[in-house]
Write a structure and sequence with these properties.
This protein is mainly alpha-helical. It has a domain at 104-310: Orthogonal Bundle (MetI-like fold). The chain has 16 helices and no strands. The longest helix has 33 residues, at 104-136. The radius of gyration is 28 Å and the shape is flat. It starts with a helix and ends in a 7-residue tail after the last helix.
């Protein structure tokens, strides 16, 4: 009798266990479903989660909100000791005034020109370097990769002086690149992080695909152009976005190598105009808001591609 009674009980436990496995209750999380089902834990969990999401969103969005609303205030209101969250009187025409008075369009065109060159040189140089280290594997390739990655351990400010000396007097050529686009394009092309990301992705491309293309008569460059690059679109998108955003928002390096006011980027030009003291604060807020629009739009469009490209794993044939 004991055995027959235990049989259905054991079967019942097995059914419950199978049901939990099918419903996905075995997924490991920070707080288990059993703890959430106790009392008001689930309600408290949701309240804390929403509160943290709102807090982090406010931390990142509030500076943008303050910049936009500050552009719509009068200079007198901005100078008041007690700041106001909402403008006492709205002045959206400040954006048009700042656009025409500060000549933002020309500086944004300069920035777009420099950023386009940075993007092209970054993709070409970093793809070539990563492909050579991943597939061609020259002599001392591991040592070269180690030296490239070691540069990531150095602070960016520590590299400013060597980069500036190299730009002022290019080794072996003796050319001065200051006040030329090459002073921005060439240093930006050597990006250790992009080379590492690209090499990691190239390493995961199945060797069988490259061997099959080689049997059909494809050379090294043809393998890169027709096989490797089409498969590497996700990581190329990530590298491109990083290069574009980095080139657009860079301030310190363009400040050092672009001395001509007519050829400066928008960030350097606005900084120079702000220190002159002749630009009202509301117009400066409006100029900063206008200058930030292109990068915000690019991020909103390609935000999913950034994570998908960085997390792209091995390819399946």
């Amino acid at each position: 009798m004991t055995l027959t009674a235990a049989g259905p009980a054991v079967q019942g436990h097995e059914k419950v266990r199978r049901g939990r496995a099918e419903t996905g209750s075995t997924t490991r999380t920070l707080i288990s479903d059993a703890d959430l089902d106790r009392g008001r834990n689930r309600l408290l969990y949701r309240i804390v989660l929403v509160a943290m999401a709102v807090l982090f969103a406010a931390i990142f969005i509030f500076p943008l909100y303050w910049m936009v609303t500050g552009a719509m205030k009068t200079p007198q209101e901005l100078a008041e000791p007690v700041p106001t969250l909402l403008p006492q009187s709205w002045h959206p025409e400040t954006f048009a005034t700042a656009w025409s008075r500060l000549d933002i369009g020309r500086f944004m065109l300069n920035t777009a020109f420099y950023t386009t060159g940075i993007w092209l040189f970054t993709v070409v140089v970093d793809v070539a370097a990563a492909y050579a280290l991943s597939r061609l594997r020259p002599i001392f390739s591991r040592v070269i990769l180690a030296l490239i990655l070691a540069s990531l351990m150095l602070p960016a400010d520590a590299l400013l002086v060597p980069k500036y000396l190299a730009v002022v007097d290019v080794p072996l050529l003796g050319i001065n690149l200051v006040d030329t686009p090459w002073a921005l394009w060439l240093p930006a092309a050597a990006n250790a992080f992009n080379i590492y990301v690209l090499k990691r992705f190239f390493d995961r491309i199945p060797q069988e695909l490259l061997d099959a293309a080689s049997i059909d008569g494809a050379g090294r460059l043809r393998l890169l152009w027709h096989v490797v690059l089409p498969l590497s679109r996700p990581v190329l998108a990530v590298v491109s976005i990083f290069a574009i955003v980095g080139g657009w928002k860079d301030f310190l390096w363009p400040l050092l190598v672009l001395r001509d006011p007519e050829a400066q980027t928008v960030s350097v030009a606005l900084s120079r105009l702000a220190f002159t003291g002749y630009v009202p604060q509301n117009e400066m807020f409006a100029a900063l808001a206008i200058a930030s629009i292109p990068m915000i739009v690019i991020f909103m469009i390609f935000q999913k591609g950034i994570l998908s490209g960085l997390s792209a794993g091995a390819l399946k044939g």
